[in-house]
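Researcher: Next sequence.
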Amino acid sequence: MAKEFNNNDAQELTDKLVGINRVAKVVKGGRRFGFAALVVVGDNKGRVGFGTGKAREVPEAIKKATDQARNKLVRIPLKEGRTIHHDVKGRHGASKVILRSAPPGTGIIAGGPMRAVFETLGVQDVVSKSIGSSSPYNMVRATFNGLQNIQSPRGIAARRGLKVSSIFGKNKTEKKQELNKNDQTKKN
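Model: Next structure:
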């Protein structure tokens, strides 16, 4: 599902730094310090990716993470371009997340790493809850797991060989019209 995109798209991508860890390698002469960065990249229109980078210097680690995130962009279907289509759960390791669709004006109700994912994705209204481990790496991966399980009504209809309107069912007025038609045909 991950797709690569050309450099023309790179100009419109926004990136957010989720976290930096200082890590140490113990060697004979002491400790060698390095840095690990976690970055989320998106176009605010339904494409998002995350990447990790490790290096001896912070800017180099961030650059590696950003490059990896741009190469791992994924398209997520959005409802009305502002929220997700349906409620979904995601999981990675001990981190679990619950993502819920929200009405207009709700805003992004999400904690740290999840907020960065939603902001770069272009989601404006969503309610989310994280359960279990609050490790930024696992929370981002759990959020992506949940987002990749989202299916648009158009995709579901295509897979079933139906029209989108038949998936949603009939509303009350359509049911009344159908009943009236059936009554008229029985009278004739």
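Model: Confidence is low (pLDDT under 50) at residues 1-7. The helical segments are 7-10, 58-71, 112-121, 136-148, 153-160, 164-168, 172-187.
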